[in-house]
Amino acid sequence: MNKRIFAAALMFTVVAIAQPSSPIYKQATKFDVGGEGGWDYITYDATSNRLFIGHNSEIAVVDVATGKKVGSVPANGAHGVAIVPEKGLGFSTNGRAGTVTVFDAKSLQPKQDIKAGENPDAIMFEPGKSEVYAFNGHGKSATVINAKSGKVVATIPLAGKPEFACADPKAHQVYCNLEDKSEVAVIDTKSHTVKSTWAIAPGEEPSGMAFDSAHHRLFLGCGNKMMVMLDSTNGKVLAHVPIGDGVDATKYDRKNGNVFSSCRDGTVTIAKENGDKLEVVQTLKTQQGSRTMALDTTTHRIYLAAAEFGERKAGERRPAMKPGSFKVLVFGME
Prior knowledge:
- The protein contains one helix and 28 strands.
- It has a four-stranded antiparallel beta sheet, with no helix packed on it. A four-stranded antiparallel beta sheet has the order 2-3-4-5, with no helix packed on it.
- The protein starts with a helix and ends with a strand.
- The protein has 334 residues and is mostly beta strands.
- The relative contact order is 0.12.
- It is globular and about 45 Å long.
């Protein structure tokens, strides 16, 4: 092979290696939702093709097909929503009231309020025992609710402030981030007790969590600008990559191995899982303050809450939100 051919071949190889291993995301559209006040979790329900968004004093419900707000569920300090498809029910956390509201997932009519701990925040459905876990931020505990009866079956003390969690029905476990301890608590769903805790160093202050059940991988979005991947069978930290500032949500797309962490600085880091390795394939520009996110694993679209803000005034923690500017940004593959 002469030098020119070799150089050309080498250049082709380098370019090929440098190409992203996942499709690139870009903004597809946006949904104007409106309403006042801040927001928290976004939950996508595949059964109804709707988004459920904790937005101030309500759970705003948006039809993904039309981009229109189709209703709401009253809330007192709205945070998260867990949908139980086989029961046709939704469960939402009311941080200020210290309760969980049970509502009809189709009609959106509230059915009952269940007393939880202090400041219930994240919430998830554990399908193995058909139970709903509400994580009490200030109460440092988890309230476990039978999805059929609506009765509290356990209150699990935790060693720190819980953030998001994921269920592993086959292992009879729930994994929960303890933000102030930089640990993951492993809950035994049979006994409703914490069986172990895992340190996540070099990660700190974990917020969002996602789970790859096929390969036993946990993904944590951490407050020190890092995504950490753990082995869910033993808690070993396998890999980590840099992300943006102010992370909240982390999602995993099981069909293509992409992991997403959305951050307050207006970025979503998209990483690719490959065995024991993580590779950043894109840093997606979104909008300042867009830290919460939902994922549709069928269309591979991600949805981020956003709003317009004015100039920050002296003494303000953050600038004021412009009235009626609340919206959802929609990103998809090119």
